[in-house]
Protein backbone atom coordinates (compact mmCIF):
# COMPACT_ATOMS: atom_id res chain seq x y z
CA UNK A 1 0.00 0.00 0.00
CA UNK A 2 1.11 3.53 -0.71
CA UNK A 3 0.92 5.84 2.31
CA UNK A 4 -2.12 8.08 2.82
CA UNK A 5 -3.55 10.34 5.48
CA UNK A 6 -6.39 9.01 7.60
CA UNK A 7 -9.32 10.93 9.00
CA UNK A 8 -12.25 9.72 11.04
CA UNK A 9 -14.89 12.47 11.15
CA UNK A 10 -17.94 12.14 13.37
CA UNK A 11 -20.42 14.13 11.28
CA UNK A 12 -21.50 14.11 7.64
CA UNK A 13 -20.48 17.76 7.24
CA UNK A 14 -16.97 17.06 8.43
CA UNK A 15 -16.76 14.05 6.13
CA UNK A 16 -17.87 16.09 3.11
CA UNK A 17 -15.28 18.75 3.92
CA UNK A 18 -12.54 16.17 4.47
CA UNK A 19 -13.32 14.69 1.03
CA UNK A 20 -12.68 17.98 -0.72
CA UNK A 21 -8.93 17.31 -0.63
CA UNK A 22 -7.68 16.22 -4.03
CA UNK A 23 -7.57 12.41 -4.41
CA UNK A 24 -9.33 11.83 -1.07
CA UNK A 25 -11.64 8.78 -0.90
CA UNK A 26 -14.33 7.63 1.52
CA UNK A 27 -13.66 4.41 3.44
CA UNK A 28 -16.76 2.32 4.21
CA UNK A 29 -16.13 -1.16 5.58
CA UNK A 30 -12.90 -1.46 3.61
CA UNK A 31 -13.80 -4.96 2.43
CA UNK A 32 -13.22 -3.97 -1.18
CA UNK A 33 -11.08 -0.87 -0.84
CA UNK A 34 -8.39 -2.33 1.45
CA UNK A 35 -7.67 -5.26 -0.93
CA UNK A 36 -7.52 -2.73 -3.82
CA UNK A 37 -5.08 -0.56 -1.86
CA UNK A 38 -2.89 -3.58 -1.16
CA UNK A 39 -2.73 -4.26 -4.89
CA UNK A 40 -2.00 -0.59 -5.49
CA UNK A 41 -5.08 -0.36 -7.70
CA UNK A 42 -6.04 2.74 -5.74
CA UNK A 43 -3.70 5.43 -4.42
CA UNK A 44 -5.73 7.99 -2.47
CA UNK A 45 -4.04 10.94 -0.79
CA UNK A 46 -6.39 10.53 2.14
CA UNK A 47 -8.99 8.08 3.41
CA UNK A 48 -12.01 9.46 5.17
CA UNK A 49 -13.52 6.73 7.35
CA UNK A 50 -17.32 6.92 7.48
CA UNK A 51 -17.50 4.52 10.40
CA UNK A 52 -17.79 7.28 12.98
CA UNK A 53 -20.57 9.14 11.13
CA UNK A 54 -23.57 7.89 13.12
CA UNK A 55 -26.10 9.88 11.10
CA UNK A 56 -25.55 7.64 8.05
CA UNK A 57 -25.96 4.36 9.97
CA UNK A 58 -29.14 2.56 10.92
CA UNK A 59 -32.50 1.58 9.44
CA UNK A 60 -35.85 3.38 9.55
CA UNK A 61 -39.16 3.65 7.62
CA UNK A 62 -40.48 6.73 5.82
CA UNK A 63 -44.08 7.90 5.38
CA UNK A 64 -44.32 6.17 2.01
CA UNK A 65 -43.60 2.82 3.71
CA UNK A 66 -40.12 2.58 2.28
CA UNK A 67 -37.21 1.09 4.21
CA UNK A 68 -34.44 3.68 4.57
CA UNK A 69 -31.02 2.21 5.16
CA UNK A 70 -28.12 4.50 6.09
CA UNK A 71 -25.20 4.28 3.67
CA UNK A 72 -22.84 3.23 6.43
CA UNK A 73 -25.04 0.36 7.64
CA UNK A 74 -23.29 -3.01 7.60
CA UNK A 75 -24.54 -6.10 5.79
CA UNK A 76 -25.00 -7.81 9.19
CA UNK A 77 -27.19 -4.94 10.41
CA UNK A 78 -29.36 -5.14 7.27
CA UNK A 79 -29.62 -8.94 7.58
CA UNK A 80 -31.03 -8.51 11.09
CA UNK A 81 -32.93 -5.26 10.58
CA UNK A 82 -35.42 -5.57 7.70
CA UNK A 83 -37.87 -8.34 8.71
CA UNK A 84 -40.63 -6.87 6.50
CA UNK A 85 -38.47 -7.37 3.40
CA UNK A 86 -37.21 -10.96 3.77
CA UNK A 87 -35.63 -11.11 0.30
CA UNK A 88 -33.41 -8.13 1.11
CA UNK A 89 -32.54 -9.51 4.57
CA UNK A 90 -31.61 -12.86 3.03
CA UNK A 91 -29.47 -11.20 0.36
CA UNK A 92 -27.50 -9.28 3.02
CA UNK A 93 -27.18 -12.40 5.17
CA UNK A 94 -25.57 -14.25 2.28
CA UNK A 95 -22.90 -11.73 1.24
CA UNK A 96 -19.41 -13.13 1.75
CA UNK A 97 -18.95 -14.49 5.27
CA UNK A 98 -19.77 -13.20 8.78
CA UNK A 99 -16.55 -11.18 9.16
CA UNK A 100 -17.14 -9.45 5.80
CA UNK A 101 -20.75 -8.73 6.80
CA UNK A 102 -19.63 -7.18 10.10
CA UNK A 103 -17.58 -4.52 8.23
CA UNK A 104 -18.92 -4.17 4.68
CA UNK A 105 -21.61 -1.54 4.09
CA UNK A 106 -24.46 -1.03 1.66
CA UNK A 107 -23.04 2.36 0.62
CA UNK A 108 -19.65 0.83 -0.16
CA UNK A 109 -21.22 -1.96 -2.18
CA UNK A 110 -23.36 0.39 -4.28
CA UNK A 111 -20.52 2.90 -4.75
CA UNK A 112 -18.22 0.16 -5.94
CA UNK A 113 -20.82 -1.43 -8.28
CA UNK A 114 -18.87 -4.65 -8.77
CA UNK A 115 -20.45 -6.48 -11.74
CA UNK A 116 -20.89 -9.55 -9.50
CA UNK A 117 -22.12 -7.82 -6.35
CA UNK A 118 -25.49 -8.55 -4.77
CA UNK A 119 -26.83 -5.17 -3.59
CA UNK A 120 -26.95 -3.59 -7.06
CA UNK A 121 -29.50 -6.26 -8.06
CA UNK A 122 -31.62 -5.50 -4.98
CA UNK A 123 -31.53 -1.75 -5.55
CA UNK A 124 -32.39 -2.01 -9.24
CA UNK A 125 -35.14 -4.64 -8.84
CA UNK A 126 -36.71 -2.75 -5.95
CA UNK A 127 -36.64 0.58 -7.77
CA UNK A 128 -34.69 1.99 -4.83
CA UNK A 129 -33.57 5.59 -4.48
CA UNK A 130 -29.90 6.28 -3.74
CA UNK A 131 -29.59 9.36 -1.56
CA UNK A 132 -26.31 11.26 -1.34
CA UNK A 133 -25.15 14.36 0.50
CA UNK A 134 -26.29 16.43 -2.48
CA UNK A 135 -29.20 14.68 -4.26
CA UNK A 136 -31.50 11.70 -4.80
CA UNK A 137 -30.79 9.30 -7.67
CA UNK A 138 -33.25 6.68 -8.95
CA UNK A 139 -31.63 3.23 -9.23
CA UNK A 140 -32.57 3.23 -12.94
CA UNK A 141 -30.27 6.25 -13.45
CA UNK A 142 -27.55 5.24 -11.00
CA UNK A 143 -25.75 2.20 -12.45
CA UNK A 144 -23.59 3.13 -15.44
CA UNK A 145 -21.74 -0.11 -16.20
CA UNK A 146 -19.07 -2.23 -14.52
CA UNK A 147 -17.65 -0.31 -11.51
CA UNK A 148 -19.29 2.87 -12.90
CA UNK A 149 -22.01 4.88 -11.18
CA UNK A 150 -23.61 8.32 -11.33
CA UNK A 151 -21.66 9.36 -8.20
CA UNK A 152 -19.39 12.39 -8.47
CA UNK A 153 -15.97 12.62 -6.84
CA UNK A 154 -16.35 13.02 -3.08
CA UNK A 155 -20.12 12.33 -3.12
CA UNK A 156 -21.27 10.18 -0.21
CA UNK A 157 -24.16 7.71 -0.22
CA UNK A 158 -26.03 8.67 2.91
CA UNK A 159 -29.14 6.53 2.54
CA UNK A 160 -30.81 3.97 0.28
CA UNK A 161 -34.64 3.90 0.19
CA UNK A 162 -36.30 0.62 -0.75
CA UNK A 163 -39.99 0.32 -1.65
CA UNK A 164 -41.21 -3.02 -0.27
CA UNK A 165 -42.59 -5.35 -2.98
CA UNK A 166 -45.54 -7.70 -2.52
CA UNK A 167 -43.33 -10.65 -3.36
CA UNK A 168 -39.61 -10.89 -3.99
CA UNK A 169 -36.66 -13.23 -4.01
CA UNK A 170 -32.94 -13.10 -4.78
CA UNK A 171 -31.49 -16.27 -6.28
CA UNK A 172 -27.69 -16.37 -6.24
CA UNK A 173 -25.54 -18.92 -8.02
CA UNK A 174 -22.49 -18.56 -5.84
CA UNK A 175 -18.93 -18.65 -7.10
CA UNK A 176 -17.56 -20.68 -4.21
CA UNK A 177 -14.04 -19.22 -4.10
CA UNK A 178 -14.95 -15.52 -4.10
CA UNK A 179 -18.46 -15.97 -2.63
CA UNK A 180 -19.74 -13.35 -5.08
CA UNK A 181 -22.54 -14.15 -7.53
CA UNK A 182 -21.54 -16.03 -10.67
CA UNK A 183 -25.05 -15.00 -11.67
CA UNK A 184 -27.68 -13.56 -9.35
CA UNK A 185 -31.28 -12.61 -10.17
CA UNK A 186 -33.54 -10.46 -8.01
CA UNK A 187 -37.25 -10.50 -8.87
CA UNK A 188 -39.67 -8.08 -7.23
CA UNK A 189 -43.44 -8.02 -7.80
CA UNK A 190 -45.21 -4.75 -7.11
CA UNK A 191 -48.90 -3.88 -7.48
CA UNK A 192 -48.09 -2.07 -10.74
CA UNK A 193 -45.58 -4.45 -12.30
CA UNK A 194 -42.60 -6.77 -11.93
CA UNK A 195 -38.91 -5.82 -11.94
CA UNK A 196 -36.14 -8.31 -12.68
CA UNK A 197 -32.49 -7.34 -12.11
CA UNK A 198 -29.55 -9.51 -13.09
CA UNK A 199 -26.05 -9.29 -11.60
CA UNK A 200 -22.85 -11.22 -12.30
CA UNK A 201 -23.72 -11.84 -15.93
CA UNK A 202 -23.25 -8.81 -18.16
CA UNK A 203 -20.11 -6.93 -19.12
CA UNK A 204 -22.24 -3.81 -18.60
CA UNK A 205 -22.83 -4.71 -14.94
CA UNK A 206 -26.26 -5.08 -13.35
CA UNK A 207 -29.20 -4.83 -15.80
CA UNK A 208 -32.98 -5.19 -15.97
CA UNK A 209 -34.34 -8.06 -18.04
CA UNK A 210 -37.35 -6.30 -19.51
CA UNK A 211 -38.61 -9.28 -21.56
CA UNK A 212 -38.95 -11.34 -18.37
CA UNK A 213 -40.54 -8.39 -16.57
CA UNK A 214 -43.26 -8.14 -19.25
CA UNK A 215 -43.97 -11.86 -19.19
CA UNK A 216 -44.13 -11.98 -15.39
CA UNK A 217 -46.37 -8.93 -15.13
CA UNK A 218 -49.31 -10.86 -16.54
CA UNK A 219 -48.38 -14.28 -15.16
CA UNK A 220 -46.03 -14.43 -12.14
CA UNK A 221 -45.00 -18.09 -12.53
CA UNK A 222 -41.77 -19.84 -13.55
CA UNK A 223 -43.61 -21.17 -16.62
CA UNK A 224 -44.18 -17.65 -17.89
CA UNK A 225 -40.42 -17.22 -18.42
CA UNK A 226 -39.69 -20.82 -19.41
CA UNK A 227 -39.21 -20.03 -23.09
CA UNK A 228 -37.22 -16.81 -22.62
CA UNK A 229 -33.47 -16.45 -22.84
CA UNK A 230 -30.85 -13.68 -22.98
CA UNK A 231 -28.24 -13.64 -25.75
CA UNK A 232 -24.73 -14.80 -24.79
CA UNK A 233 -23.26 -11.80 -26.56
CA UNK A 234 -22.12 -9.20 -24.02
CA UNK A 235 -22.07 -11.69 -21.14
CA UNK A 236 -18.93 -12.08 -19.03
CA UNK A 237 -16.63 -14.93 -19.99
CA UNK A 238 -13.88 -15.99 -17.58
CA UNK A 239 -12.40 -19.13 -16.06
CA UNK A 240 -15.51 -19.58 -13.92
CA UNK A 241 -17.96 -19.65 -16.81
CA UNK A 242 -18.41 -18.88 -20.50
CA UNK A 243 -20.81 -16.23 -21.80
CA UNK A 244 -23.16 -19.03 -22.96
CA UNK A 245 -23.11 -20.60 -19.50
CA UNK A 246 -23.91 -17.29 -17.83
CA UNK A 247 -26.71 -16.57 -20.30
CA UNK A 248 -28.19 -19.97 -19.52
CA UNK A 249 -27.91 -19.33 -15.76
CA UNK A 250 -29.85 -16.06 -16.11
CA UNK A 251 -32.90 -18.06 -17.23
CA UNK A 252 -32.47 -20.75 -14.58
CA UNK A 253 -31.94 -18.26 -11.73
CA UNK A 254 -34.94 -16.19 -12.85
CA UNK A 255 -37.24 -19.21 -12.84
CA UNK A 256 -35.94 -20.30 -9.42
CA UNK A 257 -36.34 -16.79 -8.03
CA UNK A 258 -39.96 -16.59 -9.23
CA UNK A 259 -40.73 -20.04 -7.82
CA UNK A 260 -39.21 -19.13 -4.46
CA UNK A 261 -40.98 -15.75 -4.33
CA UNK A 262 -44.23 -17.76 -4.53
CA UNK B 1 2.61 8.08 12.65
CA UNK B 2 -0.40 8.58 14.89
CA UNK B 3 -0.89 7.40 18.45
CA UNK B 4 -3.63 4.83 18.74
CA UNK B 5 -5.10 3.29 21.86
CA UNK B 6 -7.56 0.47 22.34
CA UNK B 7 -8.38 -2.24 24.84
CA UNK B 8 -6.83 -5.57 23.89
CA UNK B 9 -7.87 -8.65 25.84
CA UNK B 10 -9.14 -6.48 28.65
CA UNK B 11 -6.00 -4.36 29.01
CA UNK B 12 -5.24 -0.87 27.74
CA UNK B 13 -2.89 -0.98 24.76
CA UNK B 14 -1.22 1.92 23.04
CA UNK B 15 1.10 2.27 20.11
CA UNK B 16 1.93 4.08 16.90
CA UNK B 17 0.36 3.42 13.54
CA UNK B 18 0.39 4.88 10.05
CA UNK B 19 -2.87 5.31 8.17
CA UNK B 20 -2.07 2.16 6.20
CA UNK B 21 -1.08 0.02 9.21
CA UNK B 22 -3.45 -2.94 9.34
CA UNK B 23 -4.94 -4.01 12.65
CA UNK B 24 -3.21 -7.37 12.29
CA UNK B 25 0.18 -5.69 11.82
CA UNK B 26 -0.44 -3.53 14.88
CA UNK B 27 -1.37 -6.57 16.98
CA UNK B 28 1.54 -8.70 15.82
CA UNK B 29 4.34 -6.20 15.36
CA UNK B 30 3.53 -3.36 17.74
CA UNK B 31 1.95 -5.38 20.56
CA UNK B 32 3.80 -8.66 19.94
CA UNK B 33 0.57 -10.68 19.89
CA UNK B 34 1.55 -13.16 17.18
CA UNK B 35 -1.28 -15.60 17.86
CA UNK B 36 -3.36 -13.85 15.21
CA UNK B 37 -2.11 -15.25 11.90
CA UNK B 38 -1.87 -13.85 8.39
CA UNK B 39 -2.71 -16.53 5.85
CA UNK B 40 -3.75 -14.86 2.64
CA UNK B 41 -3.67 -11.12 3.37
CA UNK B 42 -6.47 -10.84 0.79
CA UNK B 43 -9.56 -11.21 3.04
CA UNK B 44 -10.20 -14.79 1.96
CA UNK B 45 -8.91 -17.23 4.60
CA UNK B 46 -9.98 -16.01 8.05
CA UNK B 47 -6.69 -16.88 9.82
CA UNK B 48 -6.61 -13.28 11.09
CA UNK B 49 -10.10 -13.17 12.63
CA UNK B 50 -10.30 -11.24 15.92
CA UNK B 51 -13.24 -9.68 17.76
CA UNK B 52 -13.71 -5.91 17.62
CA UNK B 53 -16.43 -4.69 19.98
CA UNK B 54 -17.68 -8.24 20.17
CA UNK B 55 -17.91 -8.87 16.41
CA UNK B 56 -15.70 -11.15 14.31
CA UNK B 57 -13.66 -9.17 11.78
CA UNK B 58 -10.70 -9.91 9.54
CA UNK B 59 -7.79 -8.02 11.10
CA UNK B 60 -6.00 -8.00 7.72
CA UNK B 61 -8.89 -5.97 6.27
CA UNK B 62 -9.22 -3.24 8.85
CA UNK B 63 -6.85 -0.40 9.71
CA UNK B 64 -5.39 -0.08 13.18
CA UNK B 65 -6.60 3.52 13.39
CA UNK B 66 -10.17 2.31 12.90
CA UNK B 67 -9.86 0.37 16.15
CA UNK B 68 -9.18 3.53 18.17
CA UNK B 69 -11.09 3.19 21.43
CA UNK B 70 -12.39 -0.28 20.55
CA UNK B 71 -12.46 -3.49 22.60
CA UNK B 72 -10.32 -6.01 20.75
CA UNK B 73 -10.08 -9.67 21.67
CA UNK B 74 -7.49 -12.01 20.18
CA UNK B 75 -6.70 -15.69 20.65
CA UNK B 76 -4.32 -14.72 23.48
CA UNK B 77 -7.35 -13.50 25.43
CA UNK B 78 -9.40 -16.68 25.09
CA UNK B 79 -7.99 -18.96 27.80
CA UNK B 80 -9.68 -19.09 31.20
CA UNK B 81 -8.40 -16.85 33.99
CA UNK B 82 -6.37 -19.74 35.48
CA UNK B 83 -4.62 -20.30 32.13
CA UNK B 84 -6.52 -23.46 31.20
CA UNK B 85 -8.05 -23.72 27.73
CA UNK B 86 -11.54 -22.32 27.40
CA UNK B 87 -14.42 -24.49 26.29
CA UNK B 88 -13.97 -23.85 22.54
CA UNK B 89 -10.20 -24.35 22.66
CA UNK B 90 -10.56 -27.51 24.73
CA UNK B 91 -13.13 -28.89 22.30
CA UNK B 92 -10.76 -28.30 19.37
CA UNK B 93 -8.11 -30.30 21.24
CA UNK B 94 -10.48 -33.09 22.28
CA UNK B 95 -11.94 -33.54 18.80
CA UNK B 96 -8.74 -33.07 16.80
CA UNK B 97 -10.09 -29.87 15.26
CA UNK B 98 -6.57 -28.94 14.17
CA UNK B 99 -3.55 -30.46 12.53
CA UNK B 100 -0.91 -27.88 11.62
CA UNK B 101 -2.77 -25.27 13.67
CA UNK B 102 -2.27 -22.38 11.29
CA UNK B 103 -5.98 -21.67 10.79
CA UNK B 104 -6.86 -22.44 14.41
CA UNK B 105 -6.70 -18.95 15.98
CA UNK B 106 -9.14 -17.66 13.36
CA UNK B 107 -11.31 -20.77 13.62
CA UNK B 108 -11.56 -20.45 17.40
CA UNK B 109 -12.39 -16.73 17.20
CA UNK B 110 -15.07 -17.33 14.55
CA UNK B 111 -16.49 -20.29 16.45
CA UNK B 112 -16.64 -18.22 19.65
CA UNK B 113 -18.45 -15.42 17.79
CA UNK B 114 -20.94 -17.94 16.42
CA UNK B 115 -21.65 -19.34 19.89
CA UNK B 116 -22.19 -15.82 21.24
CA UNK B 117 -24.88 -15.27 18.59
CA UNK B 118 -26.27 -18.82 18.44
CA UNK B 119 -25.56 -20.86 21.58
CA UNK B 120 -26.70 -24.20 20.06
CA UNK B 121 -26.00 -24.05 16.32
CA UNK B 122 -26.91 -26.87 13.97
CA UNK B 123 -24.25 -28.56 11.84
CA UNK B 124 -25.46 -26.52 8.83
CA UNK B 125 -25.25 -23.27 10.79
CA UNK B 126 -21.71 -24.08 11.88
CA UNK B 127 -20.55 -24.85 8.34
CA UNK B 128 -22.25 -21.71 7.06
CA UNK B 129 -20.74 -19.46 9.73
CA UNK B 130 -17.23 -20.83 9.16
CA UNK B 131 -17.47 -20.25 5.40
CA UNK B 132 -14.82 -17.52 5.58
CA UNK B 133 -12.35 -19.65 7.55
CA UNK B 134 -10.25 -21.90 5.36
CA UNK B 135 -8.42 -24.97 6.66
CA UNK B 136 -6.01 -26.89 4.46
CA UNK B 137 -5.55 -29.82 6.85
CA UNK B 138 -8.57 -31.15 8.67
CA UNK B 139 -11.27 -31.39 6.02
CA UNK B 140 -13.42 -29.36 8.47
CA UNK B 141 -15.23 -32.37 9.90
CA UNK B 142 -13.47 -32.38 13.26
CA UNK B 143 -13.78 -28.60 13.47
CA UNK B 144 -17.55 -28.92 13.14
CA UNK B 145 -17.51 -31.64 15.79
CA UNK B 146 -15.49 -29.43 18.11
CA UNK B 147 -17.96 -26.56 17.76
CA UNK B 148 -20.90 -28.90 18.38
CA UNK B 149 -19.15 -30.21 21.49
CA UNK B 150 -18.28 -26.73 22.71
CA UNK B 151 -21.98 -25.87 22.56
CA UNK B 152 -22.84 -28.88 24.70
CA UNK B 153 -24.21 -30.97 21.84
CA UNK B 154 -23.46 -34.53 20.83
CA UNK B 155 -20.52 -34.31 18.44
CA UNK B 156 -20.50 -37.97 17.49
CA UNK B 157 -23.89 -37.82 15.79
CA UNK B 158 -22.55 -36.22 12.63
CA UNK B 159 -21.40 -38.77 10.13
CA UNK B 160 -18.10 -38.44 8.31
CA UNK B 161 -18.77 -37.83 4.65
C1 LIG C 1 -14.34 -12.53 1.02
C2 LIG C 1 -15.32 -11.52 0.48
C3 LIG C 1 -16.52 -11.95 -0.03
C4 LIG C 1 -17.45 -11.05 -0.56
N1 LIG C 1 -18.62 -11.54 -1.05
C5 LIG C 1 -19.53 -10.68 -1.58
C6 LIG C 1 -20.77 -11.15 -2.09
O1 LIG C 1 -21.07 -12.33 -2.04
N2 LIG C 1 -21.63 -10.24 -2.62
C7 LIG C 1 -21.34 -8.91 -2.62
O2 LIG C 1 -22.17 -8.15 -3.09
N3 LIG C 1 -20.20 -8.43 -2.13
C8 LIG C 1 -19.28 -9.28 -1.61
N4 LIG C 1 -18.12 -8.78 -1.09
C9 LIG C 1 -17.88 -7.33 -1.12
C10 LIG C 1 -18.45 -6.70 0.14
O3 LIG C 1 -19.84 -6.71 0.09
C11 LIG C 1 -17.97 -5.26 0.36
O4 LIG C 1 -18.36 -4.95 1.66
C12 LIG C 1 -18.56 -4.19 -0.53
O5 LIG C 1 -18.38 -4.45 -1.88
C13 LIG C 1 -17.86 -2.85 -0.28
O6 LIG C 1 -18.37 -2.27 0.87
P1 LIG C 1 -17.43 -1.59 1.92
O7 LIG C 1 -18.30 -0.90 2.88
O8 LIG C 1 -16.48 -2.58 2.47
O9 LIG C 1 -16.70 -0.48 1.05
P2 LIG C 1 -15.18 -0.05 0.91
O10 LIG C 1 -14.34 -1.22 0.56
O11 LIG C 1 -14.78 0.73 2.10
O12 LIG C 1 -15.30 0.95 -0.32
C14 LIG C 1 -15.60 0.52 -1.64
C15 LIG C 1 -15.72 1.76 -2.53
O13 LIG C 1 -16.86 2.52 -2.18
C16 LIG C 1 -16.52 3.84 -1.75
N5 LIG C 1 -17.44 4.12 -0.64
C17 LIG C 1 -17.56 3.43 0.54
N6 LIG C 1 -18.61 3.88 1.24
C18 LIG C 1 -19.17 4.88 0.51
C19 LIG C 1 -20.30 5.74 0.72
N7 LIG C 1 -21.10 5.65 1.79
N8 LIG C 1 -20.57 6.67 -0.24
C20 LIG C 1 -19.81 6.76 -1.36
N9 LIG C 1 -18.75 5.98 -1.60
C21 LIG C 1 -18.44 5.04 -0.68
C22 LIG C 1 -15.06 3.78 -1.40
O14 LIG C 1 -14.42 5.02 -1.58
C23 LIG C 1 -14.55 2.74 -2.40
O15 LIG C 1 -14.36 3.31 -3.65
C24 LIG C 1 -17.17 -9.66 -0.55
C25 LIG C 1 -15.96 -9.20 -0.03
C26 LIG C 1 -15.03 -10.11 0.49
C27 LIG C 1 -13.76 -9.60 1.04
S1 LIG D 1 -5.12 -13.19 6.46
FE1 LIG D 1 -6.95 -12.07 6.77
S2 LIG D 1 -8.40 -13.24 5.70
FE2 LIG D 1 -6.55 -14.31 5.27
S1 LIG E 1 -5.13 -27.12 10.81
FE1 LIG E 1 -3.75 -26.71 9.22
S2 LIG E 1 -4.83 -25.19 8.10
FE2 LIG E 1 -6.30 -25.81 9.52
TrEMBL record, chain A:
<protein>
    <submittedName>
        <fullName>Xanthine dehydrogenase family protein subunit M</fullName>
    </submittedName>
</protein>
<dbReference type="Pfam" id="PF00941">
    <property type="entry name" value="FAD_binding_5"/>
</dbReference>
<feature type="domain" description="FAD-binding PCMH-type">
    <location>
        <begin position="1"/>
        <end position="167"/>
    </location>
</feature>
<dbReference type="InterPro" id="IPR051312">
    <property type="entry name" value="Diverse_Substr_Oxidored"/>
</dbReference>
<dbReference type="GO" id="GO:0071949">
    <property type="term" value="F:FAD binding"/>
</dbReference>
<dbReference type="GO" id="GO:0016491">
    <property type="term" value="F:oxidoreductase activity"/>
</dbReference>
<dbReference type="InterPro" id="IPR036318">
    <property type="entry name" value="FAD-bd_PCMH-like_sf"/>
</dbReference>
<keyword id="KW-0560">Oxidoreductase</keyword>
<dbReference type="InterPro" id="IPR016166">
    <property type="entry name" value="FAD-bd_PCMH"/>
</dbReference>
<dbReference type="InterPro" id="IPR005107">
    <property type="entry name" value="CO_DH_flav_C"/>
</dbReference>
<dbReference type="InterPro" id="IPR016167">
    <property type="entry name" value="FAD-bd_PCMH_sub1"/>
</dbReference>
<dbReference type="InterPro" id="IPR002346">
    <property type="entry name" value="Mopterin_DH_FAD-bd"/>
</dbReference>
<dbReference type="InterPro" id="IPR036683">
    <property type="entry name" value="CO_DH_flav_C_dom_sf"/>
</dbReference>
<dbReference type="InterPro" id="IPR016169">
    <property type="entry name" value="FAD-bd_PCMH_sub2"/>
</dbReference>
<keyword id="KW-0285">Flavoprotein</keyword>
<keyword id="KW-0274">FAD</keyword>
From TrEMBL, chain B:
<keyword id="KW-0560">Oxidoreductase</keyword>
<keyword id="KW-0408">Iron</keyword>
<dbReference type="GO" id="GO:0051537">
    <property type="term" value="F:2 iron, 2 sulfur cluster binding"/>
</dbReference>
<dbReference type="InterPro" id="IPR002888">
    <property type="entry name" value="2Fe-2S-bd"/>
</dbReference>
<dbReference type="Pfam" id="PF01799">
    <property type="entry name" value="Fer2_2"/>
</dbReference>
<dbReference type="GO" id="GO:0016491">
    <property type="term" value="F:oxidoreductase activity"/>
</dbReference>
<dbReference type="InterPro" id="IPR012675">
    <property type="entry name" value="Beta-grasp_dom_sf"/>
</dbReference>
<keyword id="KW-0001">2Fe-2S</keyword>
<dbReference type="GO" id="GO:0046872">
    <property type="term" value="F:metal ion binding"/>
</dbReference>
<protein>
    <submittedName>
        <fullName>(2Fe-2S)-binding protein</fullName>
    </submittedName>
</protein>
<dbReference type="InterPro" id="IPR051452">
    <property type="entry name" value="Diverse_Oxidoreductases"/>
</dbReference>
<dbReference type="InterPro" id="IPR036010">
    <property type="entry name" value="2Fe-2S_ferredoxin-like_sf"/>
</dbReference>
<dbReference type="InterPro" id="IPR001041">
    <property type="entry name" value="2Fe-2S_ferredoxin-type"/>
</dbReference>
<dbReference type="Pfam" id="PF00111">
    <property type="entry name" value="Fer2"/>
</dbReference>
<feature type="domain" description="2Fe-2S ferredoxin-type">
    <location>
        <begin position="2"/>
        <end position="78"/>
    </location>
</feature>
<dbReference type="InterPro" id="IPR036884">
    <property type="entry name" value="2Fe-2S-bd_dom_sf"/>
</dbReference>
<keyword id="KW-0479">Metal-binding</keyword>
<keyword id="KW-0411">Iron-sulfur</keyword>
Amino acid sequence: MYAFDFEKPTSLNEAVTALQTEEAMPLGGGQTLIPSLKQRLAAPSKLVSLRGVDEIRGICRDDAGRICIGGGTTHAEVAAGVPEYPALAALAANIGDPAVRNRGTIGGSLANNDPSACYPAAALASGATIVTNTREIAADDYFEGMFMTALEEGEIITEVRFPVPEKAHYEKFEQPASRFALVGVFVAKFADGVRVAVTGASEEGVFRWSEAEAALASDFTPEAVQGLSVPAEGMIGDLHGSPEYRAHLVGVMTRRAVAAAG
Amino acid sequence: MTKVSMTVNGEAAEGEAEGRTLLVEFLREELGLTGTHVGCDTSQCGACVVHVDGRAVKACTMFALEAEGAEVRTIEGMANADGSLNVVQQAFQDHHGLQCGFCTPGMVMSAAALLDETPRPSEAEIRDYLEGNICRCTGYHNIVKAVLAASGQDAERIAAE
